[in-house]
UniProtKB/TrEMBL annotation:
The gene is engB. GO terms for biological process: division septum assembly. It comes from Novosphingobium aureum. This is Probable GTP-binding protein EngB. InterPro entries: G_ENGB_dom, GTP-bd, GTP-bd_ribosome_bio_YsxC, P-loop_NTPase. Pfam families: MMR_HSR1. Belongs to the TRAFAC class TrmE-Era-EngA-EngB-Septin-like GTPase superfamily. EngB GTPase family.
Length: 227
């Protein structure tokens, strides 16, 4: 697990720069073999910790599956749950051949319709995974651009801070917001990120539908995996 930052841009720029070689390498890697490995409903089912892992988390309906599909250039690499908040498994995907690293799709949070027992099971699984997974290099925390950081996102940020897991905040669905409003949300989100010890100080702005920020996020994932 790492909270180290890298490639930090000049103060106030709000954009992370990656060289063309890294961007192209990431594109080729994600356009190559990406395969579902397994689902783990409990820690005893986790795959061996033999390669770096990058995890994705976010509240239900934040667009996590769409982002994973966009990153990998697939239409259905990540399947969405029929009932938000019900899927309580960690899903692992192998990237590259030979294997380079794994993506981990964490169960969504924000359990408006979930029983208390489901919520507690989620908390225990996620907390133990974050604190004990030595190959977890970075977590991407997805936040809906239309709403910004909500209380459930703040709770997740606290959990990540306490587990000392470095994380990037990724704004999703940027195409659903007017440019002026999007910039306000980005600035506010970035200001909040800088208050958290484990948060990367630059916020990624993405649209899975329009492809906005996808190439840069691929490069960031690759860079984090190689830490």
């Amino acid at each position: 697990m790492s909270t180290d930052n890298h490639n930090e841009p000049e103060a106030g720029k709000g954009v992370e720069a990656f060289d063309e070689e890294t961007v192209e390498r990431a594109r080729k890697l994600f356009s190559g073999p990406v395969a579902f490995l397994k689902s783990a409903p409990a820690l005893k089912f986790l795959p061996d910790p033999d390669v770096p892992e990058i995890a994705f988390c976010g509240r239900s309906n934040v667009g996590k599956s769409s982002l994973l599909n966009a990153l990998t250039g697939r239409k259905a690499i990540a399947r969405t749950s029929v009932t938000p908040g019900r899927t309580q498994e960690l899903n692992f995907f192998d990237v590259g051949e030979p294997l380079q690293f794994r993506l981990v799709d964490m169960p969504g949070y924000g359990f408006a319709k979930a029983p208390l027992s489901v919520v507690e099971t989620w908390r225990r699984l996620v907390r133990e995974f974050l604190r004990g997974r030595v190959v977890l290099h970075r977590t991407l925390l997805l936040v809906d651009s239309r709403h910004g950081i909500k209380s459930v996102d703040a709770e997740m940020m606290k959990m990540l801070d306490e587990a000392a897991v470095g994380y990037r905040i990724v704004l999703t669905k940027a195409d659903k917001v007017k440019a002026s409003e999007l910039e306000k949300v980005r600035v506010a989100t970035q200001a909040e990120a800088r208050k958290h010890p484990a948060a990367y100080p630059i916020v990624h702005v993405t649209s899975s539908e329009k492809g906005l920020g996808i190439a840069e996020l691929r490069a960031a994932v690759l860079a984090d995996a190689l830490l």
